[in-house]
Amino acid sequence: MYRHAYQNGNAAYPLGGSGTFSIQPHKFQPRSHPLKRRRQLMTRLGIVGTLFCIIVFFFFPNLRPGGTSFGLFSSPEDSQIETVRYYDLSNVQGTARGWEREERILLCAPLRDAAPHLPMFFGHLKNLTYPHNLIDLAFLVGDSKDNTITLLKELLEDLRQNPDPKMQFGEMSILEKDFGQKVNQDVESRHGFAAQAGRRKSMAQARNWLLSAALRPTHSWVYWRDVDVETAPFTILEDLMRHNKDVIVPNVWRPLPDWLGGEQPYDLNSWQESETALALADTLDEDAVIVEGYAEYATWRPHLAYLRDPYGDPDMEMEIDGVGGVSILAKAKVFRSGVHFPAFSFEKHAETEGFGKMAKRMGFSVVGLPHYTIWHLYEPSVDDIRHMEEMEQEKKKKEEEEKAKKERMDKIKDTFDTPSRQWEEDKSKLQNLAQDAKKVADEPKKQVVQPDKIVEARGEEPEAKVEK
Ligand SMILES: *[C@@H]1O[C@H](CO)[C@@H](O)[C@H](O)[C@H]1NC(C)=O
Fold it and tell me: Across residues 130-156, what is the average pLDDT?
């Protein structure tokens, strides 16, 4: 049912290959040739086509038969009709129990210098409980200086060769495009205020390119997921889907080292609109982009992140206007209707926040779950790293001091070893003496238990002491 990518000689390259399998479409238009040449050509094409099919079927077992549309490689008579595909889009609207209706999800992940996180991300993919064969994967790799692409290909290949049929995902696409992002990818530069508007606009473009290339008429849902999520429920797709909203996001926090308080709200881009923010927006230039979560814009918006109660009902919903991009489940119809990630100032917002606003503006439901939390990876900031180094040094210094102190004490003990043994002997002698004396002192006291002698006993006590 879902053989889109590698048919009809279009220019998608099979994973890991060069252009070996790509057959140019113009070679398949023999209509103007004389009959003889045509027959020759068809024979050649037949051979090439058969070879191609064998190779494709060998590498992509999930493309195997039961199908309609290998028109160009079968007989010329039905080539025309079978390349026509029919889709009823009313069947892919998205429902609350998509896994029962076999609704397909397009899982989109924009990647930039993401190699360190990819293995963890694939761990998450494998753990998803939503039927994997209903999940298509699409990655956009842009502006990366590390080996993201190479590693991604390897991991996808591993996934594809996994013998467990439950581990077979649907279509997997890697799209590559740079957007000229010059901001450094380190935590400081990425999260600095000055970099935000530009960064958000090129992120928006990346998302739009990715989605427009990967969204098929068969998709009911689109799930956006960042690679640097550390912990998330395996059932997250079903959990979000059950709410049957057009756009829905969980709460996103991150764990912190103990000395920083243990945990912290992470994604501040999911929020509800406020009067203050609207008034602020009115004062800004048309092209201005408000980025949430920075002191520079005091918007006083209720943030999804701050409303979290660890013991709250995870199903509780909150209407929101801006959404964060760490983990968004949206019905595909939202995008089909024209809602996208604005790479310009839409109502003074861009990217996912602008997406939330645009969806809302078009009448779609946009919801956040304040008590359903996933955890973003903690990446220490430059300050944190400095602080941790200081703490480490302090610890070392303390340890060294302790060690020096202990050595000093040992030395002192050594020096006074003999006298101290002497002292021990003296002490035990003294103790013996004291015990003897106590025995003597105790004897008269035994009379004390006899009531009629109480007075007497009291009288005797000082005498006993004097005797010693
Ligand atoms: C996937 O599940 C296994 C088994 O429960 C677990 O050990 C592993 O940490 C999970 N991976 C991720 C990335 O959560």
Answer: 95
pTM, two decimals, is: 0.70
Fold classification of 93-379 is Spore Coat Polysaccharide Biosynthesis Protein SpsA; Chain A (3.90.550)
Here the tokens at position 317 are: 């919903």
Atom of ligand 1 nearest to the CA of 120: 13
How many angstroms does the Cα of residue 269 sit away from the middle of ligand 1? 28
Question: Separation of 355 CA from ligand 1 center, angstroms?
Answer: 31
Q: How many residues in the chain? A: 468
Between residues 58 and 290, the one the model is more confident about: 290
Q: Whose CA is nearest to atom 5 of ligand 1?
A: 127
Buried b (16+ CB within 10 A) or exposed e, 185-214: eeeeeeeeeebbbebbbbbbbbbbbbbeeb
Contacts of 413 (CB under 8 A, 6+ apart): 420
Test site for ligand 1: of 122, 124, 126, 127, most ligand atoms within 8 A of the Cβ: 127
CA of 215 to the centre of ligand 1 (A): 29
Q: Which residues have CB under 8 Å from 208's CB, separation 6+? A: 340, 341, 343
Segments in 306-350 forming alpha helices (H): 332-336
For tokens 């003496």, name the residue: 433
Ligand 1, closest atom to CA 231?
14
- Atom of ligand 1 at shortest distance to CA of 232? 14
Whether 328 shows a pLDDT value over 80: the answer reads yes
Kindly compute the dihedral angle of the four CA atoms of residues 27, 32, 38, 43, in this order, to the nearest 10 degrees: 20
Closest C-alpha among 19, 336, 6 to residue 171: 6
Which residue owns the Cα nearest ligand 1 atom 8? 123
Answer whether residue 106 shows pLDDT above 90: yes
**157 alpha carbon to ligand 1 midpoint, in Å?**
20
Amino acid at 283: T
Residues in contact with ligand 1 (CB, 6 Å cut-off): 120, 123-124, 127
Q: Taking the chain, what is the end-to-end CA distance rounded to the nearest angstrom?
A: 109
173-206 pLDDT tens trace: 999 999 877 656 666 666 667 678 888 999 999 9
Could you tell me the distance, in angstroms and rounded to a whole number, from the CA of residue 124 to the centre of ligand 1?
7
State the Cα–Cα distance between residues 66 and 238, nearest whole angstrom: 29
Residue 384 Cα to ligand 1 midpoint, Å, equals 28
